[in-house]
Write a structure and sequence with these properties.
CATH superfamily: MetI-like
Number of domains: 1
Helix content: over 70%
Largest sheet: 2 strands, antiparallel
Shape: globular
Distance between the termini: 43 Å
Radius of gyration: 26 Å
CATH topology: MetI-like fold
Amino acid sequence: MTTYSDASGAIMPLPKARRATGFGGVVPALAFVAIFFVVPVVVLLLRSVLEPVPGLGNYAQLIGSATYLKIFANTFIVSGFVTVISLLTGFPVAWSLAIMPGRLTSVIFAILLLSMWTNLLARTYAWMVLLQRTGLINKMLMGMGLIDQPLALVNNLTGVTIGMTYIMLPFIILPLYGVIKKIDPSTLQAAALCGANRWQCLTRVLLPLAMPGMAAGALMVFVMSLGYFVTPSLLGGTANMMLAELIAQFVQSLVNWGMGGAAALVLLVVTLSLYAVQLRFFGSQNPGGR
């Protein structure tokens, strides 16, 4: 038994430390998750199969309608393009940040964070000004002689892809930077000493080691793109509607919670499936090869 001496010199035993047993310590966290995440999803599921009449009619209508299928296709195509472009653009930026001097890296990070902290609505309106027929981008292209007529870059999926790629880039650069920064530079030096050229060092050494970060960043960008509302609504218009806009229209304009819940749950199932695939193939890998 551990003891201690009090002010009078008497030897007193130390009280035994109490240890939390069972699930008492996690009850508040579980209650928070249940109230704010599980219960709303369950309510949404119930409304999707109970309104306006009980059954799977809402899901059948979503799958059987060519209009809704086109909206699903728009959502997945744009999200896929945004993910691929963000990955191709973000990887060189993350690699450059990893090998830059510390002071220059801090400046670039400040620019990235500033873009993330700027109001999303303001950034989207800025892209509307830049991409319109009389905007700066069309004027520059025409001034350089690359085009004769202004390009249609807004109110279509092209504008949505451009605007969303700009918004999503920081979310793929940051995880990639964290993974690439942890890769030991001597690994690439060893590959070069063994006769690997630059392309082989990139494809056989750097990319496999950075794959967990690439997968995590790509999944984050793709899932966020699936549920984005503001940018597709402003840059795409009603003729190029995406799933988040459809859900908002069901709930706000048509007050059809059944169809809105069905569309939302389809999106949730797709998101969870992609997350499960990412965990299956990359969840056990240690970023940076360590």
